[in-house]
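User: Before I run my own analysis I want an independent prediction to cross-check against. Here's the chain; please return only the structure tokens and, at the end, one sentence I can use as a sanity check.
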Amino acid sequence: MPSKLSDAEIKLIKARVQTQKSHPFWARLMMSLEMKARTAEQGIPTAGVDARGNLYYNEDFIASLSPSQVQGLLAHEVMHVALGHLLRLDTRDHTIWNLATDAIINEMLIEDGLELPDSAVKFN
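Assistant: Structure tokens:
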């Protein structure tokens, strides 16, 4: 018997489909993400990716976002993978590297008309 999708999974799937209509480039990249639910206790208070393209997301965080913010979040996370940020971290300070790469990615997404969660790192 197939398992029932959670509300967060449905929201993520809908965001990927909607992105195909408005931002096909980002949608194509998003389709490669393997989505995996995690809790804050498991180290994921919001969302994140690993170098293999696994998207770890907190269902409560996804529930707090608008559909357009979910699109922006997915585009943000997949860009870490596409740009090789995790592979290029090397011995850099993880926190500083993540903030810097977040700011650059977010500027690209805003310029392309995507909406980000209110908590997103921005230059201004």
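Sanity check: The CA atoms of residues 2 and 17 lie 21 Å apart.
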